[in-house]
Structures are given as C-alpha cells and as structure tokens.
Amino acid sequence: xxxxxxxxxxxxxxxxxxxxxxxxxxxxxxxxxxxxxxxxxxxxxxxxxxxxxxxxxxxxxxxxxxxxxxxxxxxxxxxxxxxxxxxxxxxxxxxxxxxxxxxxxxxxxxxxxxxxxxxxxxxxxxxxxx
Length: 130
Prior knowledge:
about 130 residues
C-alpha cells in the first residue's frame, strides 16, 4: 500500500553497505559508493569493493616499499618520510586498481575494523571458468 517492500536480499545488502560506510568514515576521507559498490577518494582512482585487499601500515614501522606505493608515488616512494603519528591505508582492488590513504594513528582501531570487514564480507567473486 505504501510502496514496495524490500526483499531479504535487499535488506541485507543495505545493511552491509551501511556497515561498510560507517567503518570507512574515519579512513582518510574515503567514501563508499554503490552501483557498482566501490571505494572513492578525492584525487584517487575508484577501487571496487569486491575482492579488495586492505593493508594498514603504521608510519615508521612501515619499512617495506610496496609496488603499490611505488606506483602511486613513483621514485619518491624511496624518499617519503615515515611518520609515527599517521597510518597508511592501502586498498588494492582485484582488478589492479589501488588507492593510498593517510589517517591519524589514533584511528588505528577503526582502520583495522574496516580492513577486517572488507576481507570478511566482501571477498572476490568466484572466477569464471572458460
């Protein structure tokens, strides 16, 4: 009578989207968009949520130089100063896209919760046999 009712699948998808948006709210100004579900941030490429891998590095504890970091910052990756007051969140999509975000180290708990949520509830879609 007052519009269409949502199916159980639509309710679950809506709840998962809300949960993901809440978890990502403290991570470097990133947003979660739908249709298709993807991460977006100013000045960064969009990364699909399905199959994304999230890596969190603490400033000076991040000794390694990842291929993503080199791809995003070029040769300057070697000279970037590591700061212990910041976290570096790398999101790598299953399709090869990536984004690098900074957030305050005091938000480490929220960032780790976000990473666990992405890994647990948004795995890569099954590969098509061809």
